[in-house]
Amino acid sequence: MKLHDIAHSRTGDKGNTSNISLIAYDPDKYPLLARHVTAEKVKNFFGELVKGEVVRYELPQLGALNFVMKDALGGGVTRTLSLDIHGKSFSCGLLTMEIPDE
């Protein structure tokens, strides 16, 4: 299944770092997200777009994961020539990731 079937997402940015939240629609689906959406999988999923480290933070009380992706915005808002200077499309991209539907 695709992540958009069970979760929604929001992004933010600070300098050259992008932040993506992944929030389960149903808190009962949080363990499924936590099991299958790792920092390593997110880094691999975005490939060359994320040049730095990806760190995952768990927020089980909110049914959410938060990923901080370093060196992901082409230098940051004031330096990049990218069309998506704030990295907002990362959330749409992440929601297309496939995970097992157990």
Summarize the model shown.
This protein is of the alpha+beta class and 102 residues long.
Keywords for this structure?
21% helix; alpha+beta; 102 residues; Alpha-Beta Plaits; 4-stranded antiparallel beta sheet
Description:
With 102 residues, the chain is an alpha+beta fold. It has one domain: Alpha-Beta Plaits, CATH 3.30.70. The chain is 21% helix and 27% strand. The protein is built from three helices and four strands; from the N terminus they run E-E-H-H-E-E-H. A four-stranded antiparallel β-sheet has the order 1-2-4-3. Strand 3 and strand 4 form a beta hairpin. It is globular and about 35 Å long. It starts with 6 loop residues before the first strand and ends in an 8-residue tail after the last helix.
Mean pLDDT: 86
Described by strand count, sense and barrel closure, the largest sheet is: 4 strands, antiparallel
CATH architecture, please? 2-Layer Sandwich
How many β-strands, per DSSP? Answer: 4
Rg measurement, Å: 13 Å
Distance between the termini: 9 Å
Quaternary class? single chain
Major beta sheet, strand line-up: 1-2-4-3
Strand content: 25-35%
As residue ranges, the low-confidence spans are 78-87
CATH class descriptor name: Alpha Beta
The tally of domains stands at: 1
Mass-distribution shape: globular
What fold name stands as the CATH topology? Answer: Alpha-Beta Plaits
Structural class: alpha+beta
SSE ordering? EEHHEEH
Which percent range fits the helix content?
10-25%
Count of separate DSSP helical elements: 3
Question: Would you spell out the secondary-structure blueprint of this structure?
Answer:
Elements: E1 7-14, E2 17-24, H1 30-36, H2 39-46, E3 54-59, E4 64-69, H3 89-94
Antiparallel strand pairs: 1-2, 2-4, 3-4
